[in-house]
Specification:
mainly alpha, elongated
Length: about 40
């Protein structure tokens, strides 16, 4: 159970890191916001 829990936490963190945090390479905005603007 603790391995599944750790995997879930890592997956959630990775999703936020890749989709919701600001990225300096695209002007400091989150990728999801950029995609909505297109």
């Amino acid at each position: 159970d603790s391995i599944e829990h750790a995997q879930n936490l890592a997956t959630q963190w990775m999703w936020v890191y890749n989709n919701e945090r600001p990225h300096s390479s695209i002007g400091g905005i989150p990728p999801r916001k950029l995609l909505k603007a297109i």
